[in-house]
Amino acid sequence: MRIGIAGITGRVGRLLVEEVQAAGVALAGGTTRTPDRAAGLPPACPLFDDIAALAEVCDVVIDFTHADTVVANARALAGTKAAWVLGTTGLSAQQNESVLKAAEHVAVVHAANFSPGVTLVQRLARMMGQALPAQVYDAEIVEMHHRQKVDAPSGTALAIGQAVALGRGVDLDAVRESGRDGHTGPRREGAIGFAALRGGQIVGEHDVLFTSADEQITLSHRAFDRRIFATGAVRAALWVKGREAGLYSMEDVLGLPPL
What we know:
Elements: E1 2-6, H1 11-22, E2 26-31, E3 47-48, H2 51-55, E4 60-63, H3 70-78, E5 83-86, H4 93-102, E6 107-110, H5 116-131, E7 138-145, H6 155-168, H7 172-175, E8 176-178, E9 192-198, E10 204-211, E11 216-223, H8 227-240, E12 246-248, H9 250-254
Parallel strand pairs: 1-2, 1-4, 2-3, 4-5, 5-6, 6-12, 7-9, 8-9
Antiparallel strand pairs: 7-10, 10-11
Subunit structure: Homotetramer.
GO molecular function: 4-hydroxy-tetrahydrodipicolinate reductase; NAD binding; NADP binding; oxidoreductase activity, acting on CH or CH2 groups, NAD or NADP as acceptor
Protein name: 4-hydroxy-tetrahydrodipicolinate reductase
């Protein structure tokens, strides 16, 4: 098996190199916009200018690059035989649509977070959203990340919120409340609230709170090392090789039964 890494010289890209090697499969190469930062990569690791050329020499491409590259990457990979493991967050509706179109041609595993723990938190959040009435239990999601993070709320927080909304049978965009400030008035019944904190070098912290007048239930996840994302992505790559075209999730990779 051959795995290629888009953005191989990035922070997650270098962890992916180590995890691919630890998995005992072949590193086919990677793409980079900063070839001058290639020091430290395996000596025989080829670098490519574009993702289509990389896909031609591998079975799976792992992509943690940037939302701005998703449409072009989706178009390029749809014309190849390589599966796509996509961990880029903060996608627009158009960018998400391009992922869906690519999945008509190749197997795609798309996840906001490749941590098994976060995947289970999302599953539990959906179950709790379904079981705890929105008229009684207020749902709030609080996340904190390092100071360099550019999007808020985080993709993981939004994915958890989407899980709650799915459990409640509502459209997240219709009930989402983010960044409350000033005289906002009382909390809307059924709202799903988001709060984003930034500071230091925190890898990722997410709390999902369901609060009624009588009790509070909290789901919490703390990532201590971003390697967990690379480990999960390689696990997804090993799983998706040879799968039929379609859009898959980390729940599929973990073998969780459908709800």
